[in-house]
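Page 37, continued from 36.
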């Protein structure tokens, strides 16, 4: 294993990027919060207006079907989700509404979403991750930083003017998502990971004190019985990496040791990625993507402390 000093051109990470790869599910009704409380890994029953929530939606085996950034707005709860899994996620969640007073809809067309980085984020009043503030008719959610630069999610009415600031390329924003170490689940990796395999418990994506939700027993057992076998690391390669690509360790060339969770071209050349790996694969030896003979990965720990399993 090679520990890589990841390129950190932080001066490039400054501006506003349209986030057309994301969509919005709106949940409305008297039981909106209690319904989500019984479906997702985070606490929506006690969600204050000043905060957003990172959350996962899991199947009964604890594997992630979707991830969201959720917050309250104008009497409903908005869930920001990868657009390529929005329709299937909306359909599945809607199946479990039953008698709850909650209505779910695809509200993507009603909103414009932007990523703010660097000065554009700082000037918007960002703070600790998942802090939520209003800016006129828009909502700003602070995200985890990338290479020391502040970042935020801006959600406003579709007809509202975009936030002010220089244009940031979508590739640079995608790279900032990767090096922040907080992945957004997308179609190639649906049902591939328990939340802890992508460090969600360490970045505010799992609440271990809330009530039941699909997969809760698996998620809790993974945390409290010392059975965590995989974690997410940052990785770099000289050639393209793809979300969902298998990752191998030289000690067992026939069996994958993990997978690429999210990847983006690095501004300094090559590709950076979040990879979910068996802990044993991060200790020593050659790690490759695609096959045992594939491109070698250099690894780096995530840029935040991990919540220890107990």
């Amino acid at each position: 294993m090679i520990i890589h000093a990841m390129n950190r051109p932080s001066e490039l990470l400054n501006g506003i990027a349209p986030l057309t790869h994301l969509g919005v599910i709106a949940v409305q009704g008297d039981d909106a919060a209690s319904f989500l409380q019984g479906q997702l890994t985070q606490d929506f029953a006690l969600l204050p207006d000043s905060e957003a929530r990172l959350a996962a939606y899991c199947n009964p085996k604890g594997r992630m079907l979707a991830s969201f950034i959720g917050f309250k707005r104008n009497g409903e709860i908005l869930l920001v989700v990868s657009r390529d899994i929005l329709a299937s996620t909306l359909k599945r969640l809607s199946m479990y509404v039953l008698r709850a007073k909650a209505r779910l809809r695809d509200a993507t067309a009603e909103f414009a979403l932007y990523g703010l980085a660097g000065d554009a984020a700082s000037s918007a009043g960002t703070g600790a991750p998942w802090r939520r503030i209003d800016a006129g008719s828009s909502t700003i959610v602070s995200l985890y930083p990338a290479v020391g630069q502040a970042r935020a999610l801006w959600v406003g009415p579709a007809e509202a003017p975009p936030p002010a600031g220089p244009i940031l390329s979508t590739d640079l924003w995608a790279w900032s998502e990767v090096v922040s170490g907080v992945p957004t689940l997308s179609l190639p990796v649906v049902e591939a990971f328990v939340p802890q395999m992508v460090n969600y418990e360490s970045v505010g994506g799992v609440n271990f004190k809330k009530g039941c939700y699909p997969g809760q027993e698996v998620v809790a057992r993974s945390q409290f019985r010392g059975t965590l076998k995989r974690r997410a690391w940052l990785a770099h390669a000289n050639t393209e990496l793809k979300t969902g690509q298998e990752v191998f360790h030289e000690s067992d060339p026939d069996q994958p040791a993990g997978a690429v969770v999210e990847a983006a071209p690095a501004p300094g050349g090559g590709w950076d990625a979040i990879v979910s790996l068996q802990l044993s694969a991060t200790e020593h030896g050659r790690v490759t993507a695609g096959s045992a003979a594939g491109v070698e990965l250099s690894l780096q720990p995530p840029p935040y402390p991990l919540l220890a399993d107990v």
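The chain has two domains: 2-8+185-300, 10-167. Flag for discussion at group meeting. DSSP finds five helices and 18 strands in the chain.
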